[in-house]
């Protein structure tokens, strides 16, 4: 029995009283309101609408998506780690 307790995995439980909120989601919402990130999102949406409006196209919106996500993550990274416990 002692050997079994030695190999058991730790169990992590959240406090029931505390509502857990993902700080990354809150920071992403805050960063999306910034002008340059909002304009990158609008460029991505315009490209997405254009591609979805065509029946045969080889165009993808990967470049616009990567630009938007990279800038959003860069904005979030400035303050995310200071909010983690």
TrEMBL record:
Subcellular location: Mitochondrion inner membrane
Principal localisation: mitochondrion
GO cellular component terms given for this protein: mitochondrial inner membrane
Domain annotation Ubiquinol-cytochrome C reductase hinge: ranges: 22-85
Gene3D superfamilies the UniProt entry points to: Ubiquinol-cytochrome C reductase hinge domain
Cystines in this chain: 31-75, 47-61
Origin superkingdom: Eukaryota
Xref: Pfam families: UCR_hinge
Keyword Metal-binding among UniProt keywords: no
Keywords (A to Z) from UniProt: Disulfide bond, Electron transport, Membrane, Mitochondrion, Mitochondrion inner membrane, Respiratory chain, Transport
Keyword match 4Fe-4S: no
GO BP field: mitochondrial electron transport, ubiquinol to cytochrome c
Topology of the protein relative to the lipid bilayer: Peripheral membrane protein
Family under the similarity heading: Belongs to the UQCRH/QCR6 family.
PANTHER family linked to this entry: CYTOCHROME B-C1 COMPLEX SUBUNIT 6, MITOCHONDRIAL (PTHR15336:SF0), UBIQUINOL-CYTOCHROME C REDUCTASE COMPLEX 7.8 KDA PROTEIN (PTHR15336)
Function: Component of the ubiquinol-cytochrome c oxidoreductase, a multisubunit transmembrane complex that is part of the mitochondrial electron transport chain which drives oxidative phosphorylation.
Identification of the protein by name: Cytochrome b-c1 complex subunit 6
